[in-house]
Every structure is written in C-alpha cells, then in structure tokens.
From TrEMBL:
Gene3D superfamilies: Class II aldolase/adducin N-terminal domain, lambda repressor-like DNA-binding domains
Record-linked InterPro entries: Aldolase_II/adducin_N_sf, Cro/C1-type_HTH, Lambda_DNA-bd_dom_sf, ThiN
Organism: Halosimplex carlsbadense 2-9-1
PROSITE patterns registered for this protein in UniProt: HTH_CROC1
Alphabetical list of CDD domains matching this protein: HTH_XRE
Name listed for the protein in its UniProt record: XRE family transcriptional regulator
GO MF entries: DNA binding
Upper classification of the organism: Archaea, Methanobacteriati, Methanobacteriota, Stenosarchaea group, Halobacteria
Domain (HTH cro/C1-type): residue spans on this chain: 20-54
C-alpha cells in the first residue's frame, strides 16, 4: 500500500527542489542563499545542483512544472515573492496534480487497484471522495453478506432466481454505482453460497429495484430480495416494516414510484408475480447490514 503523499515525497520533491535550486543558481544566488530560501541544507543544494539526486523524467518534462519553477525562481531571486508565497503556490500545484493529473497517474502506477474508480478516483484527500465512499460501500456489503451467511434460515428464503444484497453510492445514478455480490446468492443444499466478494456494476435486477425506489422518493441505500409469500410480508409488517406492492408487469420505475406515492418511507416492496415473473419481496435498508438483519425476523 502506497499513499499519494509518498509519491510526492519520493518523486515530486527531489525533482521540484533540484529544478528550483538550479534556476536560483542560474540567477546568481549562492548555495547558501538558495539553502536559506528553500529551507534545506547547503549540502542538499549542492547535491541538487550537481545532479546527485534522482529525478522523475515525467515531472522534468512537464511544461506546467517548468513554468512554475521559473516563476518561483524569478520571484524569489528578485525578492518580489516570499518563501511562504512560493510554498503556497507549490502546494496548490501539488494538489492539482494529485486530483486525476500527473501525480495521480504516478500513484496509479504504484497502486493499480485505484484504476477501477474512474476519472475522479484520486481525489482521496476529500472525505466525500468516490474512492472513500466506494470502499465504505464494499465494506458495508461484506458485513451484510456475513450476516446472511450466519443466518441458518436464509437459504429457505432464497427465490428460484437467486438472491442478491446490493448497496449504492450516496449519489447513485446507474447500476455501475451499485455494488452487489457477483452472480447471485444461492441456496446450495441448505447453505448460503456466495460466489465472490462484492463489486460495483454486477447486479442488474435488484440494483434496478433499489434505484427505482430511490427515484420514487425512498432514501434507502441497500436492498435484499427474498422469495415471496404472504406470510413473509405479514411477518415483516408485524415486525414494524411498511410494505407496499408494485405491479411486476409494468415499467419498473413507474410501478415502484406508484407504489411509494402514498408511502415513501416504505421499507418493503413486493410483487406477486406475472407472466414469466417470479413473485419477490425486496427489503430496503439504510445499508447492507440493515437489510440483511431484517431477514432474521422471518
């Protein structure tokens, strides 16, 4: 595991400081003056100037970095810019490069697993970043799956089409923003069979029901489907859940929206089947574990 800050320390700082030290020396400053401006030792300046420090070629050839170095060197050498001002400009530049730019690309080379998160994957200093939110969803789903695995009666609730436990990102727009168990959760001779670890974009049906519920006004972030029986719906209702029925043969988004129109806080959706459609109960929850725990009441 390597943090982007390590890329900054190992790759950016030696390259940037050596370039800036060279530019300041070219403007007539002594090694002692350069050391004072950069807040480093004279021996470090000597190493930078004499090429004794390994530099990153991609950073060296970056036009924006070269322009920044020239601007800072000119300002520092002339006295028009203080070291603090130079630090602020350099810091802003580094943060830019961390957010999907050159430092982000260098970080991806060190941590290839980050590549799955798309163009904004490297905004990892932001508490609301996609990376952090996605990892929280996956961790939540893993907890939910463990609950299902440890619920002895769960295999009896798995419908013929299989079950799935899904959870979405806070601002989910499509099934790629919904994580689920790949394939289906199955009843394998009385045990709960989980094909693999949760991933994003691997559920179409249960994810679509969750998204339809959210579009209809629900604030649920997770859903779990189980087989339908009137007794199952009754048991959930008796346990304090609000259940609403939707039409299995109608357009899903419209049908779920109609069902939630009078009960937007409903946490159980069900349909009693249709032509070629198995009847199913969908339990909604704030997260995967919440939806999974509901089945323990059945």
């Amino acid at each position: 595991m390597k943090f982007v800050e390590e890329v900054v320390v190992d790759e950016f700082l030696p390259t940037f400081r050596s370039m800036l030290a060279e530019a300041l020396r070219e403007r007539g400053l002594t090694q002692s003056e350069v050391a004072e401006l950069l807040g480093i030792s004279q021996s470090a300046v000597s190493k930078y100037v004499h090429g004794e420090v390994e530099r990153n070629d991609r950073l060296l050839s970056d036009r924006r970095l070269r322009e920044l170095v020239e601007r800072l060197a000119e300002g520092l050498a002339s006295g028009e810019m203080s070291p603090v001002q130079a630090l602020v400009e350099a810091e802003v530049f580094v943060r830019r490069l961390e957010r999907g730019d050159l430092l982000a690309q260098l970080h991806e080379a060190e941590m290839p697993g980050l590549a799955e998160y798309g163009d904004d994957r490297f905004a990892i200093h932001d508490p609301e970043s996609t990376v952090r939110a996605a990892e929280q969803v996956l961790a939540s789903l893993r907890r939910g799956v463990r609950i299902l695995e440890n619920t002895d009666e769960f295999p009896d609730l798995v419908p013929a089409v299989g079950s799935n436990l899904v959870e979405c990102l806070p601002e989910a727009e499509g099934i790629e923003d919904v994580a689920a168990v790949p394939g289906r959760i199955l009843d394998l001779e009385g045990t709960t069979a989980i094909p693999g670890d949760p991933e994003f974009g691997v559920s179409e049906h249960v994810a679509s029901v969750l998204l339809a519920a959210r579009a209809g006004g629900s604030d649920a972030r997770a859903a779990l489907n189980v087989r339908y029986e009137a007794d199952i719906v009754e048991t959930l209702t008796d346990a304090g859940y609000t259940a609403v029925e939707f039409d299995a043969e109608a357009d899903l988004t419209e049908a779920v929206a109609d069902a939630l129109a009078d009960s937007p806080d409903a946490d159980v959706l069900y349909q009693t089947g249709g032509f070629g459609v198995e009847p199913i109960v969908y339990v909604l929850g704030a997260d995967g574990p919440t939806a999974a725990r509901a089945v323990r009441k059945l």
